[in-house]
Here is the input.
Amino acid sequence: MATIAVDDRSSGASGPSPAAPPGPRRRRPGSRLKLRNTLIGWSFILPNFLGFGLLTLIPVVTLFYLSLTEWNVFGGAEFIGLDNYTRMIGDTSYHTALFNTIYYSAVHIPATLVASLGLALLLNRKLRGVAFFRTVAFFPYITSIVAIAVVWNMLFSPEYGPINQFLTFLGVDDPPGWTTSADSSMPAVIIVGVWREMGYYMLLLLAGLQTVPGELYEAARVDGAGAWGRFWNVTLPCLRPTMFFVTVILTINSLKVFDLILVMTDGGPGQSTLVLSQFIYSKGFEENQFGYASAVAVTLFFICIAVTIFQFFWNRRKDA
Here is the structure.
């Protein structure tokens, strides 16, 4: 034992041994897993970002540039500044299209909202065959827009259409000309638009109705609330987030309506149903004025943005 102690002291007297050189730093397993998860996440969202950049962001930026140029497909784009925007001030056709777009939206939005909400309330009951009626209500939305236009133009025929025949049977001496009359063509398009789209928004509102707790209705009945009181004080407040979403989507779709009017009236008679989307299409693809069409598209874009921002602020003010 003494010998061992002497040896320890002698080794200690010679001083500390030199430290071993540091080896390669090993990456912790946690950081490697974190990097792997990050790469996997980017691999999922990168295609979406690429699609957004190529199909949305780049075209929108190009649109803003083209709105400042005079350009057609047969020549180069010549920068002209704000001339396209000042041209809109004196363009009566643009004013007509803007007015018709506001007219269509102002009537179509509340009419579709009321019709879809009423349909959702009706089909939210436990009835036999309710799934069938929900499918029937949604079916017009997935039907070909061309087929819808052909059928409704036949129904609206002034001479042979069953609608005017029914009105004549009821005693109406001078039934409207519908799509052949400048005075009644826009109401006819709005009727078809409401009929076609109310099934889609009915499904959205129906999903919102099914999230309303049944206990709230029971409590309202105990307090003596009738059907209208339960609807006003229970259904509408609980349905508010869904109503806000439906209103925003419905407003944007109404402002940029195009396909229904194109195949049903083609903007006529005259310019009675000409809307901004069709005006853009006509100026760009029919008259080859892509610079001016881009400027009109920019104005429509800002109209949609402004209305949407107003709806968001209005909804936030109501929540406050």
Notes: Residues 86-319 form a domain with the MetI-like fold fold (CATH 1.10.3720.10). Residues 1-14 have pLDDT under 50 and may be disordered. The chain has 14 helices and two strands. The CA atoms of residues 140 and 196 lie 5 Å apart.
